[in-house]
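Name: N-formylglutamate amidohydrolase
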Amino acid sequence: MDLISGEHRASEAASAYVVLAGHGAVLVSAPHRVEHARNGAVKCAEPDAGRLALLLHDRMGCPAIYRCGASLEDPNYDEASDYRDEIVRLVRDGGVRAVLDLHEMGDRHQSMVEIGTGHGRNVDGRFELTDEIVRAFESRGIEPVTVDAIFPAAGPRTVSADVARRSPALCFQIEMNVRLFLEEGGRSDFSVVCDALEEAVGRLNEVLR
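Structure predicted for N-formylglutamate amidohydrolase:
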């Protein structure tokens, strides 16, 4: 499945987002890869979520979308969003059946990974698929993993909730604790997180193809 003819990467400077062509049923998304604004306050970028989306695309060939540029728009909060509209288009025209929307959460949280499903609404009640994602992390020693406990992605303007409402895609918001990406003793858990996400994407592709 080719989502688009080639990549939008060359137009990063002029565009607010980039779409990378790919194959498979799962789209990975990083809407906060760059700084964004919410209620007049500029919020920090989430660069490791962006790195993960790009690396998963490179490793697996899965389609990806991420924010770029300096517009400060927030696809996970703004009332209208070209970014969310593009994902809906990719579901409709490109055959995407699931979206993994990647985010980073602060180190004040005890959970290492939080999966938001909108209390099941964003994934059409397919909690067995949520369990697959949980196992991918826990089997690699990344825990605790919580579901809909901190960031359920229930707000109507989140990427997951809006795309799920306007399309048949199953949408999982995945919040990863920044502690996973901090180097301690010269290493971080970035590669382990990437392996877990790769397993999750692969498993969803198997189930949804």
